[in-house]
Amino acid sequence: MNENPQRVEEFREAISEMKISHPPPAVERAYLWLGVIGVAVGFVLIVMGYNGAATTEFTPEAVSYLISGGVVGLALIVVGVGLFLRYSMARFQRFWLLRDIFEQRAQTDRIIQVLERIEKLDIEIE
Questions:
Q1: In the chain, helix, strand, coil percent, each to 5?
Q2: How far apart, in whole angstroms, are the C-alpha atoms of residue 42 and residue 83?
Q3: CA 53, CA 63: separation in Å to the nearest integer?
Q4: How far is residue 95's CA from residue 107's CA, in Å, rounded to a whole number?
Q5: Taking Cα atoms as reference points, which of 82, 86, 73, 75 lies closest to residue 47?
Q6: Is residue 76 within 8 Å of residue 41, measured between CB atoms?
Q7: What pLDDT was estimated at residue 72?
Q8: pLDDT at 120
Q9: Helix, strand or coil for residue 126?
C-alpha cells in the first residue's frame, strides 16, 4: 500500500490541510463510556423503580416509583445509546473514509502506471 512514499506524504498533507474538526480521542472515549454508563444506570433505575412499585400497596406510591425510576431510567438509556452510537459510528466512518480515499489514490496510481506502460508499448510498435 505504501508503494509511493511521495504520494503517501501528499495524502497526509492534503488531509491535514482539510482541518476536519473532531474531538480529541480522550474526549471521544469519555463520551463513549458516558453512553455505556448511562445505559447501565438507566437499567438499574428501571429495575429499582419496578421493585419499588411492586412492593407498595398504594397506587399513588407505585406511580411515583415508576415515574422516578422508569421514566428517568428510560431517558438515560435513550441518551446513553445515542451517545454511544454517535461517537462509535463517527470514529468508524472517519477511519473508513480515510481508508477509502487512500485506496482510491493507490488505485489511481496503478492505473496511471498501466497507462504509461501502454503508451510506451504503443510508441515502440510504431
A1: 90, 0, 10
A2: 14
A3: 7
A4: 18
A5: 73
A6: yes
A7: 92
A8: 84
A9: coil
Find out whether 101 and 11 touch, Cβ atoms under 8 Å.
Answer: yes
Domain boundaries, the chain: 25-125
Q: What number of residues does the chain have? A: 126
Angle at 35 between CA 32 and CA 39, to 5 degrees: 145
What cell was used for 60? 399513588
The CA distance from 94 to 61, in Å, is 49
Q: What is the pLDDT of residue 16?
A: 75
Burial annotation 30-42 (CB, 10 A radius, 16+ → b, else e): ebbeebeebbeeb
Residue 114 cell numbers, joined: 498501466
One digit per residue, the tens of pLDDT, for the chain of length 126 reads: 456 677 777 777 777 777 766 667 788 889 999 999 999 999 999 999 888 888 888 888 888 888 888 899 999 999 999 999 998 888 788 788 888 888 888 898 889 989 988 888 877 666
DSSP assigned state of 4? -
For 41, 82, 90, 107, 109, the CA distances from 113, given in Å and listed in that order, are 57, 46, 35, 10, 6
